[in-house]
Amino acid sequence: MIWLGLCGLIGMIRAGEGQRIIGGQETSISQVPYLVYLRQGGGFICGGSLLTTNSVLTAAHCVYGAKEQEYTVHAGASRLDQTAPVVRSVTRFHIAPNYAARNFDMDVAILQLASPVPLTTGQVATIAPCRSQPAANTYVRISGWGVQQESSRMPAAQVRTAVVRVLPGLECQLAYAGQAHLSDSMLCAAVRGIKDSCSGDSGGPLVYRGEVCGIVSWGFGCARAAYPGVYTSVASARVKHFIEKTLANL
Questions:
Q1: ∠ at Cα 205 (203, 207), nearest 5°?
Q2: In a domain, 6, yes or no
Q3: Around Cβ 5, how many Cβ atoms within 10 Å?
Q4: What are 150-159's pLDDT values in tens digits?
Q5: Which pLDDT band, with edges at 50, 70 and 90, does 224 fall under?
Q6: Are residues 111 and 163 in the same domain?
Q7: 3-state secondary structure (DSSP) of residue 63
Q8: Is 233 marked active-site?
Q9: 61 counts as catalytic
């Protein structure tokens, strides 16, 4: 998640400088086998979801302005301090053409891998994009290696997970009223003041009923009661169209 200061977009912390799920618990990749992580120049930067054996869903801000040859995708690993059993280079970034870096509208990208990832039961699996957005007050699962505290800068060694609530649209809009614009490509989720994604979880999945329904995107701080986490809504019309069109042409 991109952490934003309260003065508009001032105080932005680069995704990947600090990393862990807040208010969650350690888990194993066997529980979230679709979860992958990205390295840029060898350093951990973001999470992602394996959509097909040769494509990864992540946030546009994780790769925007960078070069494909700087990135590798790592699958099948629970820990960042151990070599992942599957590593693939990235041949192409497919970033939503209407992605807006100034406010994170359409914060979605698909990474095309150099070669297919072998699927392994309980370790590496694909996950389908959400067909319809989870209803308000539905509980969903987030996972990643992001920070446990806003002030932290160190990645979690072990993958973590948490269950959070999808907020009604009005509650989400009111939380950020006068501070930031929330578009139709976004949804909010958190257990406010207790559980949230944070910096470094960016690009990782929000999952409901075995489908990826959200992408960790941005927020003001982490697990603040006043400001829930904001996710790219995979089932929103514009995002869904981009994903379907991109996958059809890989």
A1: 165
A2: no
A3: 12
A4: 444 566 788 9
A5: low
A6: no
A7: coil
A8: no
A9: yes
